[in-house]
Design goal:
alpha+beta, 19% helix
Length: 289
């Protein structure tokens, strides 16, 4: 069992829950995931099987989400799973004002992660400290938001805006909801979140656990090829006997003027692993055969 599952994570499941369920269904010890999703979020959670867990570090970091932000409310967790801190009806807020405010969250921005997050401070995760009543503010971090687009706007005492967000790794959508509320001086919290793309996987091609169980019962399940999410990396094909030497951990002569991470294949198309060019040699970083 070697490859990936493009899992559509269910609501109220942790990423760890999904790994444990996959282990049980496939009777496989070596299972991992890319890009933790909050329990209240649904959508794309890449699951690595077998030796593919070693490839997780090479997956692209770009992600995409569809989120609903509720204005007029602040919570302890920056989503509807937490306790309400403030709640006040919002009046006379125009969509144009929200559109203008959202522009501040595009590009490279500074962001403070939510108090209830997996960020570690002094070796302890923020959510563990928060549950004990110890509120420790995480260090400011720089993240990149490539695009924010408004999908829908619903007026009312507590207006809601649906947005599509494309961003880099480490971006907290809950923090964007919270900070948008601060900019608008209304308060804001995340009401719903679905990840539509992550590390080269897309929601349209994802499997639910129901789908996975049905395929396993029918005997039709096949993991996605291990190199499917590595298409952002250039590739090189090695002919014999260079491919065998490379698989044995030997450096191979390779003319290249720059240092690059590459997908490495045999001449017959077999995916061999990950290499790096340096000083006109191809160095094995990760050999999978």
């Amino acid at each position: 069992m070697f490859g990936f599952i493009n899992l559509n994570k269910p609501f109220c499941w942790t990423s760890h829950d999904c790994v444990a369920k996959t282990r049980k269904l496939l009777r496989l010890k070596r299972v991992g995931h890319a890009g933790t999703l909050d329990p209240a979020a649904t959508g794309v959670l890449p699951i690595a099987l077998g030796k593919a867990t070693r490839l997780l570090q090479y997956l692209p970091g770009e992600k995409a989400y569809q989120a609903t932000i509720k204005l007029g409310m602040r919570t302890t967790t920056d989503d509807l799973q937490g306790e309400t801190i403030t709640e006040k009806a919002v009046t006379n807020l125009a969509l144009e004002t929200v559109e203008t405010a959202l522009q501040q969250f595009q590009g490279k921005i500074e962001q403070i992660p939510p108090n209830y997050s997996a960020i570690q401070v002094d070796g302890k995760r923020l959510y563990e400290l928060a549950r004990k009543g110890e509120m420790v503010e995480a260090p400011v971090r720089t993240v990149e938001v490539f695009k924010i687009e408004i999908l829908d706007w619903r007026e009312g005492e507590f207006p809601e805006v649906d947005v599509a967000i494309a961003c880099g790794t480490g971006t907290y959508i809950r923090a964007i909801a919270r900070d948008l509320g601060s900019v608008l001086e209304t308060g804001g919290t995340l009401a719903a979140l679905q990840r539509t793309a992550s590390s080269g996987f897309h929601i349209a091609d994802s499997l639910t656990f129901t789908d996975l169980e049905a395929q396993l019962q029918a005997g039709t399940f096949q993991p996605l090829p291990p190199d499917i999410a590595l298409q952002h990396l250039p590739s090189v094909s090695l002919s014999a006997p260079a491919d065998q030497k490379w698989c044995q951990g030997q450096k191979i002569a390779f003319e290249n003027n720059s240092s690059q991470i590459l997908r490495v294949y045999a001449e017959d198309g077999r995916f061999l692993g990950i290499g790096q060019t340096k000083d006109d040699v191809l160095i094995p970083l990760l050999v999978l055969v």
